[in-house]
Amino acid sequence: MTFQSAVGHGNLPNGLWSPVIYSQKTLDYLTRVAISSEITNTDYEGEISNYGDTVNIIKQPVITISDYARGTKIVPQDLNDEQIQMVVDQGKYYAFQMDDIEKRLSHIDWEQKAMASGAYELKNNYDTNILSYIQTNSTTAAATGTAGSPITIGYGASNSFTPLDYIGRFARLMDENDVPETERYFVATPAFWEQLGREDGKFIDAAVVGGGDSALRNRKLVTSKMIHGFICLKSNNVPVDSSSNISVLAVHKSATATATALVKAETQRLIESFGDQYKSLLVFGRKMLRPECSFTGSISSLADA
After folding, report:
1. pLDDT score at 160
2. Which of 12, 45, 148, 231 could make an SS bond with 259 (beta carbons 3.0 to 4.6 A apart)?
């Protein structure tokens, strides 16, 4: 680009004194926070080593209690050795290449920038995959909305629940299923948490959540101060359901098992040109172990969202 000159100005007519400058600082894109590792268990990860491996998880047998009176003939039950299989059948990768001349003459370390981007995209894709799997395999209850019969969230008379009451309903469902009261998580989109923090809900009231330094009041949701017994998480990777409704997840950490079997990064010389190829592979598996400890709800709309 040559800087414009006035009509009749003939000094340095080619404008060679005004070179184009490229900054060495790149504009990095915004990234999402992955949460799937927080809400799933990795107890079986060490037992998996290769793509396609299967872990057989044996369930604790359920014992039947029978009535007894004097002289009753005891009939022992047969123990059930039911098992659940978790298969490592998910693979994701990225690959890109850089010519030697591009690396030598560029003022940007493109390979490092691209590898950092690729590592993030693998993690984000993994997070989306796990959350979608949980949503698909969780227990659905009509009272909290299904794909065919979603509910509405808000503070008007026509809404099914207020946000706080909605979280409370999932707490009740977990209580009724004897789900442990520790390590419960409630995952929703930013729009849901906006509704929870509205003035109508009084949730930003200092008398409810503490003073100005309160983590909840400042929308830092991962806090020691839980809501209805849930550790609350915010995610843009929560999937929409089959009818494009907003989903929420209420899960216990033991409900879903995940296992990463292989994380591999390689750099190879190109055969048909001078340069390098960079690639990375992620192989993992996931399995719903306790659907009774994992619930999903469906919201058709959030008032004023």
Report:
1. 86
2. 45
